[in-house]
């Protein structure tokens, strides 16, 4: 497939055909990582932080009253032996 480099303000851009985006698991609006390797521009889906979105999900669960413990607290047999 071919595309053209187009002027976008003071920068330039390339239209990436949908089949290529599908192949890398990306869609319009997704963040990507760019790098140059051996004279080629490499485009990869941006790596997400493993806990990205957890804070917002926790707030939503709390707002819905769904933030209780899944397993109620339970003791271990030797808890009485611990010094705190």
Provide structural commentary:
The protein has 84 residues and is an alpha+beta fold. It has one domain: Ribbon (Pemi-like Protein 1, Chain: D). Helix content is 20%, strand content 24%. The protein contains 2 helices and 4 strands.
CATH architecture heading: Ribbon
Count of β-strands: 4
CATH class type: Mainly Beta
Count of DSSP helices? Answer: 2
N- to C-terminal distance: 66 Å
Detail the poorly predicted runs.
none
Please tell me the overall pLDDT. 89
Task: Please bin the fraction of helical residues.
Answer: 10-25%
- Quote the beta fraction: 15-25%
Write down the CATH topology: Pemi-like Protein 1, Chain: D
Order of helices and strands: EEHEEH
| Shape descriptor | elongated
As for the number of domains, it is 1
Q: How can the largest sheet be summarized?
A: 2 strands, antiparallel
For the largest beta sheet, what order do the strands appear in spatially? 1-2
């Amino acid at each position: 497939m071919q595309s053209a480099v187009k002027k976008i303000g003071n920068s330039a851009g390339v239209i990436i055909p949908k089949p290529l985006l599908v192949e890398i698991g990306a869609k319009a609006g997704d963040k990507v990582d760019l790098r140059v390797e051996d004279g080629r521009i490499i485009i990869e889906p941006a790596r997400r932080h493993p806990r990205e979105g957890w804070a917002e999900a926790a707030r939503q669960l709390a707002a819905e009253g769904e933030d209780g413990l899944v397993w109620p607290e339970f003791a271990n047999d030797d808890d009485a032996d611990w010094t705190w």
